């Protein structure tokens, strides 16, 4: 039991409540449901007659945004004290709204206007998850429950990807729930290498699949080390091996790079030399298993890095730079409008930072960078405040997710893929939560959003 969880919460002058109060439904429970819907249902499965913003998980995130707004407007709902992440979210939302108005003022064709509206809706859903994760999770116990569900859901997605890769059978097509519809076809098995093909699990793209799994690996390792029971530690060790083994089957440079970066952050910020040695041995074992199960996979990945200069996907990215400069010179500060660089009308720009530069301008790029660095700063402060190795390890895992997001933003248009974007939203919100839990002022660290059902 984390000692901070035993502290009471001040809900009114002279009135306190337990932070460990058992309730029917709280913020952590809703976020756990969101994770299950996000990872265990195909990304193209939506509520009928809606856009991709109508994914069940995203609609739930929109409800979280409404819940957070109600909590902010009602004083008795316990959400007191500062939260730096709120200011970063406000700045990011302001940049989107300013770019939205700039797009409207320049005059938009119907497709671009619809894309702007879609992006604005996705932004509210994104911020709903960020803010409720930061302000609404009541204690360390509930935060760890959310992360355990996240690891299990990532392992489920990894198993789907491994089945697709080993048996060339798309089991994701069987995950359609009555009452929902597929907005578009699932990702096909794209050939790459000698007898190999790329898979996407329940995600919409191969790069997205590998990247979100890479972000999950540090959290799987966290519970493999710090779960209270031995059988739980073994169970999470197996889940983590499954997740890590599924990353390369997407045959994506970005996914492999994301995994290396995530492990690099943990190596520097969280592990002692014994842990580093153990992770090195486990990595060798995983590589050996991949070699046996998928012969030629590691060679294909090696060739992708060694011969990257001759890869059409790399040259295609660099060829776009001239067009990026042209569009940027036209509207440098606020951009063309969020979401208006539609691939079917213009180009597929595999770079989120350049995409933000074109659509939201310099102000949008600055706001996004401030958002990332605020999350890193909050998790770093929490790491330094933490007194246990377990808490420090968890904070380092949150830092790794932000570093991965910053890096992969330069290799694909990450915010165009909702599974990745909302995984990032969850990790960002948890950065604010650990900052709050480790704050020296009890009133701030026990502040939370009132439970939905008691």
Notes on the protein architecture:
With 454 residues, the chain is mostly helical. The chain has one domain (3-445). The protein contains 16 helices and six strands. It has helices at residues 27-40, 56-73, 84-106, 110-136, 140-167, 206-226, 230-246, 253-269, 273-293, 297-306, 312-319, 321-330, 352-385, 389-408, 418-437, 442-445; strands spanning 8-12, 15-18, 45-46, 181-182, 190-191, 197-198. Strands 1-2 form a two-stranded antiparallel ribbon. A hairpin with a 5-residue loop joins strand 5 (190-191) and strand 6 (197-198). Helix 2 (56-73) crosses helix 4 and helix 13 packs parallel to helix 15 (418-437). The chain is globular. Pfam families: Wzy_C (PF04932). It is a multi-pass membrane protein.
**Which bin fits the share of residues in helices?**
55-70%
Count of domains: 1
Biggest sheet descriptor: 2 strands, antiparallel
Q: What structural category do the secondary elements indicate?
A: mainly alpha
Radius of gyration over alpha carbons? 22 Å
How far apart the termini lie comes to: 22 Å
Mean pLDDT: 89
Overall spatial form:
globular
Oligomeric assembly: single chain
Number of distinct helices: 16
Strand order, biggest sheet? 1-2
Keywords: Membrane, Transmembrane, Transmembrane helix
Membrane topology: Multi-pass membrane protein
Subcellular location: Membrane
InterPro entries: O-antigen_ligase-rel_domated (IPR007016), WaaL-like (IPR051533)
């Amino acid at each position: 039991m984390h000692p901070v969880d035993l502290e009471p919460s001040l809900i009114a002058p002279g009135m306190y409540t337990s932070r460990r109060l058992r309730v029917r439904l709280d913020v952590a429970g809703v976020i756990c449901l969101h994770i299950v819907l996000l990872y265990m249902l195909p990304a193209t499965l939506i509520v009928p007659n809606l856009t991709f913003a109508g994914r069940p998980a995203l609609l739930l995130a929109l409800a979280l945004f409404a819940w957070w707004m109600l909590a902010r407007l009602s004083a008795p709902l316990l959400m007191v004290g500062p939260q730096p992440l709120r200011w970063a979210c406000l700045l990011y939302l302001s940049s989107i709204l300013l770019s939205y108005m700039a797009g409207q003022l320049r005059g938009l064709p119907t497709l671009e206007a619809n894309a702007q509206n879609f992006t604005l809706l996705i932004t509210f859903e994104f911020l709903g998850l960020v803010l409720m994760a930061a302000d609404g999770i009541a204690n360390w116990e509930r935060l760890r429950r959310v992360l355990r569900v996240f690891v299990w859901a990532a392992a489920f997605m990894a198993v789907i990807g491994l089945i697709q890769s080993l048996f060339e059978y798309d089991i994701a097509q069987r995950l359609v729930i009555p009452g929902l519809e597929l907005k578009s076809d699932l990702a096909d098995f794209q050939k790459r290498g000698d007898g190999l093909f790329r898979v996407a699990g329940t995600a919409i793209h191969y790069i997205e699949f590998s990247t979100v799994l890479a972000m999950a690996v540090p959290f799987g390792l966290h519970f493999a080390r710090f779960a209270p029971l031995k059988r739980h530690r073994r169970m999470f060790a197996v889940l983590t091996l499954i997740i890590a083994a599924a990353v390369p089957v997407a045959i994506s440079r970005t996914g492999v790079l994301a995994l290396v970066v995530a492990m690099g952050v943990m190596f520097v910020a969280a592990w002692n030399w014994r842990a580093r040695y153990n992770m090195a041995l486990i990595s060798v074992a995983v590589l050996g298993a991949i070699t046996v199960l998928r012969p030629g996979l590691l060679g294909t990945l090696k060739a992708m890095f060694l011969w990257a200069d001759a890869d059409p996907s790399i040259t295609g990215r660099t060829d776009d730079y001239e067009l990026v400069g042209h569009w940027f010179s036209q509207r440098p500060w606020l951009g063309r409008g969020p979401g208006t660089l539609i691939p079917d009308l213009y180009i597929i720009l595999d770079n989120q930072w350049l995409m933000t530069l074109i659509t939201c301008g310099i102000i949008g790029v600055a706001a996004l960078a401030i958002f990332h660095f605020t999350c890193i700063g909050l998790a770093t402060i929490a790491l330094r405040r933490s007194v246990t190795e377990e808490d420090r390890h968890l904070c380092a895992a949150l830092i790794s997710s932000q570093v991965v997001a910053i890096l992969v933003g330069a290799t694909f248009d990450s915010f165009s893929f909702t599974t990745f974007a909302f995984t990032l939203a969850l990790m960002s919100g948890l950065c604010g939560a650990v900052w709050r839990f480790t704050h020296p002022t009890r009133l701030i660290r026990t502040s939370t959003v009132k439970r939905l059902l008691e």
